[in-house]
Amino acid sequence: MSKVLYIKANAKKEGVSRTxxxxxxxxxxxxxxxxxxxxxxxxxxxxGIGFLTEEGINLHRPNPGEGxxxxxxxxxxxxxxxxxxxxxxxFWNLSFPAILKAYIDYICVTGITFKYTAQGPVGLCQGxxxxxxxxxGGGYSEGAAAGYEMGDRYLxxxxxxxxxTDFTTIAANKLDVIGEDAEAIxxxxxxxxxxxxxxx
Length: 200
What we know:
This protein is of the alpha/beta class. A five-stranded parallel sheet has the order 2-1-3-6-7, with helices on both faces. The chain has a two-stranded antiparallel sheet with strand order 4-5. The chain contains seven helices and seven strands. It has one domain: Flavodoxin domain (Rossmann fold, 3-Layer(aba) Sandwich), CATH 3.40.50.360.
């Protein structure tokens, strides 16, 4: 049985967020195929994730097992204990909502999700897998505009830093481009999400 962490980072509600429509379809198919897996949903806006404070920085070198229930360290332990990650975050201003970066600052903790060695940093989440599901107003997967895309690239890099190299992206592009059929684009992404859920 795997433990799956479903991380949601969008101020828009269910039924309004196109990103969540795609990610929820992924989850539904995954549950259907893996009924015994534990799925933990972490809605960052409902959690009220704030920016890291001095207290949080001072906690970033905990003793082994220390602070599992602490309001800051609990997120790092939760992340480390999961086997798979689904990150649903829209494309905002060439990246993703700031609350997701705040969350990342909480989970990158020495001794929990990575460690420093004489040879350099080593991720402690190796052998796990992650998928990033994103809705974008414009087309940022190819062509000249792809160079502006910094959200997915950052997520791929930071989870790689934590040891997760099996990283997949499901993107719905051009949702706000005049003349494009946004609903059809979302449906294509939903189909892709359900297909990729089969091997996740």
